[in-house]
């Protein structure tokens, strides 16, 4: 390969002239392992669809100066999130009051691609450094990314060459959308919250959760947000018709309750499973036919995932009380039925590995990932709050708040 091809220009993506070239690189990178099932993503003609809903975002491309060929790209975004919490003390007492969130400006890297014909030339490293320069310029204190635990080249690039450390290992839980409706427990009342009440509930109860976005109002008001749903005991004082608002609810909550929100990822990207044998496809089709003909049996069926399909993402899972996990299960059944109405093939969520409510989330192990890998890097010398210290060295908590804009 000639030396001229090694001269790179790292520049901002220009949709007016780069779209076709970027899509070609994406296609060249989508070569799954021979004989194995692989998951492919269709960005629906919008290469920045997975970052454009964040407060600040950027896409960079790597271009050969001599031929103007694009051989790589990277996306990134920046937001402010909770990185810890602290207790304020009353001046007249040594007893701590309620905890308050400590925020930091966090950057996120995703969609790093390098054309197969130009790998092992340092292009990925240059793209990462170019993105990190933009992060620092815009005041980000930390940068993080998600990658598969078994993606050794990616893990090696970020941990060995870019200075990232392994940070969190959340679980991605995926459940099929069947041809039949799922029953919702008759012991539970579901309430769809107004956006203002959803925001108040999240800020009051979950703002100290790690990775909680300070602009939760922007998330909840986004056109992709289908709604926030609250589960409470049936027969109590809280119903859809008599809903008094989150202020009243939080001042006198039931013993157990749960909440989650639903995000329409189907309008952002589509997924497709490739590499399945004809026998596997035929078996999957048979399960769907039986499910449609005999829906009252509620037989589990394999959805049509061997062509582009959409998903709904569940986020903001939380709750309190001894029955909270069961209430989460009822909310997930409702979310499944919404996804069925919306023409989706799966519902997915991501939770901390130690999340107590994880047991309430139905999922198929074959579709899920027990340990996704999040890596993090400290970009600045100063911290948002000295009492928290270096976030990269903090132990994991029981919960994380996964932003649907980055899934």
Automatic annotation (TrEMBL):
Gene3D superfamilies reported in the protein's UniProt record: 3.40.630.30
Domain N-acetyltransferase stretches: 8-183
CDD domains registered for this protein in UniProt: NAT_SF (cd04301)
Lineage: Eukaryota, Viridiplantae, Streptophyta, Embryophyta, Tracheophyta
Organism: Gossypium raimondii (Peruvian cotton)
Origin superkingdom: Eukaryota
A Pfam entry, by short name: Acetyltransf_1
Keywords: Acyltransferase, Transferase
Name of the molecule in the record: N-acetyltransferase domain-containing protein
PROSITE patterns assigned to the protein according to its UniProt record, in alphabetical order: GNAT (PS51186)
Signal peptide: none
PANTHER family in the record: ACYL-COA N-ACYLTRANSFERASES (NAT) SUPERFAMILY PROTEIN, N-ACETYLTRANSFERASE HLS1-RELATED
Example of a GO MF term: acyltransferase activity, transferring groups other than amino-acyl groups
Stated family: Belongs to the acetyltransferase family.
